[in-house]
Design goal:
The chain contains four helices and no strands. It is mainly α. Helix 2 packs across helix 4. It is elongated. It comes from Pedobacter puniceum.
Length: about 80
Amino acid sequence: MSNNEILKKLRVALKLRNDEIIEILKLVNFRVTPSELGAFFRREDHPNYKPCGDQILRNFLNGLVIHLRGPQDQQGKTTEEDS
C-alpha cells in the first residue's frame, strides 16, 4: 500500500476535507498548497499525480495526533490530562 493510498483512506475514514488536512499539517509547521495536496489524491495515471513522500505522511500523522489529542505541555503530558 502506497503513502498516497494511506492518506486517501485516512481522509475518508476521518471525514477530512482538504482544507482541514492543510490545517493539520500546519500544526507541525509543514506547509503544503491545496494544489500539491490535490496531486496526492489523483490516480497514478493522471498527468498531475504526485507520489506522497514519507516526510509528508509522517508530518500528517504527527499533526493528526496533535489535532485529535491536543498539544502537549512541557512535561510531556497532554493538556487534557492536567484537568
